[in-house]
Amino acid sequence: MKLKALIVFIILVANLSISKTYFKNRNNDDDRIFERLLHKIMEIDNIPSISAAIVKNNRVVWAKGFGLYDIERNKLASNKTIYLIASITKPFTATAIMQLHEKGLLDIDDDVNKYLPFPLRNPNYPGKPITIRMLLAHQSSLAEDPLAFYCYFPGDLEIKGYPYPWLKEYLLPQGIHYKPQIWADYPPGEEMSYANIGYSILGYIVELVTNMTFYEYCNRYIFKPLEMENTSFKLNDLNISQIAVPYEHGQPLLHYSILDYPAGGLRTNVIDLSHFLIAHMNKGKYKNVSILGEDSINEMHRVQYPSKKYGFEYGLGFQIWKIGGEKYIGHTGGLYGVATKMVYRESDKVGIIFFMNKGVNNLRDIIAFSLIERLLFWKAEKEKLIRMKDIEETINANMHLIKKYGDVNKELRSFLIEIGQKFYI
Q1: Residue 400 belongs to some domain of the structure
Q2: Confidence of residue 414 (pLDDT cuts 50, 70, 90)
Q3: Which residues pair with 67 in a beta bridge?
Q4: Cα(189)–Cα(306) distance, rounded to whole angstroms?
């Protein structure tokens, strides 16, 4: 596609029916168009850096960084730049649980009270058991995270008493940290409610069953087998000079840790994470190593309980989307100064990963985030279409990353026009 034709397309898209307009990459040399579009999206949305990778045929076929991961020190991002990946941590926690399930050390349909040193029940439904499967699928009736997920600490500061007795004091009505709104007014297993604290409980169950810390378990049974050498829950395990500085509203933040780290505290780079994604795309195998059996992988990638509450459904540790008639499996992540995604399309096993060191806070950020996702799939396929319907559905699929938004179509048209206006600059 010629540059003039592309810019005309972008401007026209903003004024035509979004559901019927598309464009096609006809030239294998048009990678420069991809990079130029990506840079313009970054410029418009003030994204300091992006690192991304494409996976096909169980290998990385492309990986690259763009922009500055540390503006103050003028450090260029690469595919080796390490980011805090936020909720992409959840598939790792779920993988650890499923490994223990396969070994017979726990059963995911067991009542969690078989393992916990305190009785966990929704006070509104004390007779209804909460199972490990329910926690994995966000169906436990835990409703909100008014405190746990929003406890941030500089560096590797560790909190004595976490996970126990902190979890007990947070979850039980007599606890000193308890707030009634953490529990929904419907019974466990009835509806999905995305609750990060559920994954803190799962991480604690891993510790109770294995007599290891959660991060020690993941390092030994997930990171090392998958050759994830630049991956850790601890800053001190990593080269701090290679970690992307998080930015909010253009201002750098200190590197931080979160209390609820089994839900969102992992750091890695796109190359390391590709090994994990390949294993999940390839029936649990990476190279000659198997981290899970095929049955477990299939169960994790299957919708557990139907739900229309979000723009996605949920398996066991994995979000599941329907976009353009295709099924996509993976996870998004968002915290202060970071936004991330790991996802693959089930039909052809094409996967993408991208990290950016800027938080997603509004509709414009969601549009930029979603356009990057669709551009990466476009780059992966060359001859496939980017349909405006797919862009719109991707935006809706990512909308859970923000709480308030306005007119999606209006903002999308505005964003595309701005790309067109800036394309030659």
Answers
A1: no
A2: confident
A3: 49
A4: 10
